Structure formats: C-alpha cells, structure tokens
Please model this.
Amino acid sequence: MIIVTTEHVSGQQETTSLGLVRGSSIRARHIGKDIMAGFRNIAGGEVHEYSKLLGESREQAIDRMIEEAEALGADAIIGVRFQTSMVMQGAAEMLCYGTAVKLEAAF
Model:
C-alpha cells in the first residue's frame, strides 16, 4: 500500500477516488510510567515513555487505516494527515486519515 501526505503519487495517475479512510487508537498512560515521566520532566530531556506510547499508537492507527483502504480495493492512500486529541484524563486518541484511491501508471 502506497501512503503519501501529498495529493498525488509521483508517476501514477489516480483513476478512482474511493473516499475517506481512517484509523485511530486510544491509549491510556500507565501509572508507573507516568511517575517516571514526571521525574524526567523535572530533570529535562525527552520523555521516552510517552514517545514510545505515541509511536505505538501511531503505528496502530496507520495499520487500521490501511485495513480500511484494502477492504475498498485501494492501491494508495493520499493526503494522509495525523491528529491527536485528549479523550479523557490520562488517555489520548491518535487519528490518521486520508483518501483511498485506485492508481494506474502515468504514460
């Protein structure tokens, strides 16, 4: 599956737009990791616990978006965007979305 943030895939022509596809993942923080992150916040530097959590959530959201596109028979997802939002205290949603399209080689 080709996934791009641009509106076109280089060397390809979109033949059919199959519509919006999206994937999301909601993750909650772990109290133990939250304490470690608090210490790191005091000392400064990257908060590895949260970076890992967001990275895993992002990958799961992408996988779910791809599954939706594959179910439509898409060759690519164009215009991909990411968004995060707090859904409750200690939990965040990672959302990714784009347009599923059919492609053919441009001549």
